[in-house]
Amino acid sequence: MATLFGARLEEHASRDAALAVILPGLEMSYSELLARVRACATQVARARLLPSETVGITIADELAHFVSSLALLSLGVPQIGLPTYEPIPKRLDLARRLAVTRVIVADPRHALPGLQALPVAVDAPDAGARRAPKPVTSDPDVPGIWYASSGTTGEPKIYALTQRMLAWRGAHIIRSEGGGAEYRTFSPVSIEDPLSKNRRTYCAWAGHASVFQSRTPSPPRSLQEQCTSLGVTCVELTILQVSDLLADRSDMRRLPARTTVYTTGAMVSPRMRSEFEARFGVPLLVHYGAREFGRISADTPGSGDYDTEATGPPVPWIELEIVDGEGRTVPKGEVGEIRVRSEHMIRAYHADPVATSRHLRDGWFYPGDMGSLTPRGGLRVHGRGDDMMNLNGIKIFPAEIERVLEDHPAVKAAAAFPKSSLIHGDIPIAAVELHEAGSIGAEELMSRARERLGLRAPRKIIVLASLPRNAAGKVVKRELASFVTTGT
Amino acid sequence: MERAIRAPRARDVVFEALKTAAPQTFDDELRRAFLAGTSLKLAELDMDSLAKMEFCIAVELATGITLLPSQLSELASTDAIERRLCEAAVSLKAEE
What we know:
The complex is a heterodimer. By secondary structure, chain A is of the alpha/beta class. Chain A has a domain at 389-486: GMP Synthetase, Chain A, domain 3, CATH 3.30.300.30. Helices cover 29% and strands 25% of the residues of chain A. In chain A, helix 1 (4-13) runs antiparallel to helix 2 and helix 1 crosses helix 3. Chain A is globular. Chain B has a single domain (7-91), classed as Orthogonal Bundle (Non-ribosomal Peptide Synthetase Peptidyl Carrier Protein, Chain A), CATH 1.10.1200. Chain B has helices at 7-21, 28-35, 42-45, 49-63, 69-74, 78-95. In chain B, helix 1 (7-21) packs across helix 4. The chains are: A alpha/beta, B mainly alpha. At the A-B interface, helix 8 and helix 13 of A face helix 4 and helix 5 of B.
């Protein structure tokens, strides 16, 4: 029996000329995609995978990653992306936590030390792969794709979406984005990023086309050109990409009227939205969500007169409440903690009871953000309820930085804190106290932090004779923040 | 913390920011050329959006001057960035 995604791909492939993937100079139908997925699945199946074994994917090429991911979904083999942009120690740590011993790679240089590389070729589907290999399992409620996110303990939290969850989310999200027959989605963010990957996976479930970036080095194409020439109907941009687009005067054309443009997060100003619409001729829509839970609120395309103080109304396929510290719903307009639940949501983090009890309580998921409902029913997100930093959408926990720095034998104590920036949000800074003065410099610590934390590393490290502490011995971060701002 | 910025200081700030933001492309050869007074073309440094973001963060931390990644696209060379930083510092000082 086929897996949910395996059966779905077969169904799409039986439709004449239904397009699955579009790249500059290449249009691939679902039947062509299916041939590649089967060939890839056949290559992977030769490795004799064990039941419930999780396989890593380290592939930057979008098409190769997409095919490999769909092949594993067709085989019923759980997968986790081990992105090329993450430091190798972090990839190895994720692999260790999920007992991953094998990683699919398209480029042998991306093999990870100590793990078996499973090379796959997705560009030449062989004729012997006409039949799909037998799935390891067709159970739709076992992990389909594992994901990692930041954690309060300093370790990324790990959670899984089952094939049923992916299918359910995909059906709702693509439909809510107006997914008709002409729907084509594009995200100028690497498929190795979970949000971008999910968008492509949802699109494959819904049987529409994903537009990928060129596989070969080529002159940059403007968004207008990309959308016009490749027939894109739905684009997802980060807030920084929106900001870049507004400043870029090289192509002053408007976007085709059919284009729906989404950005995500709570930091989208009404001014940015109005500037975007004036410049590109289409509204900038906003959605808000949590990777673990999925979409929570979103503007509805075509509804017009958007509530620019909000991140859209809560989506209709979930339940949302704003509650006080006791879990009681607060009156409309008052600020409280956001909590949500849905038919198909995660029930726990992997081997992390602390994170599970913090974010999943009484059948609700708590993203950790504070919010309120506007008079028009939109969800306004006010920010974090805890001390998490948000650097251009990258969520960073102080404990994560402190742990890496304190892991160095020369460091006695570390404290991470944000420096507020109008442009970037929270710029993470760290102060350290050494066991022995002069035993290590800030540059060496920065380099170590970058290696371990990647984009979540502090952007400045200050070495102090001693960290400011209160009577109880707790570091007073407020004083550190003041030191960075005023120098005193 | 640091508001006043003069041309030599701006050059130091740009140098340090490039080391952070473009560690691969801002190689020894370019560093030597920069330190010898050459103005580098930003295109030579092949900075993607992430590198531009890191550059702006480094500048902001060193000077308090906010620079949008997109503004870097308008500035073709390191000399142009230095001029922008000096101008911004003057405006900031006037505001204070």
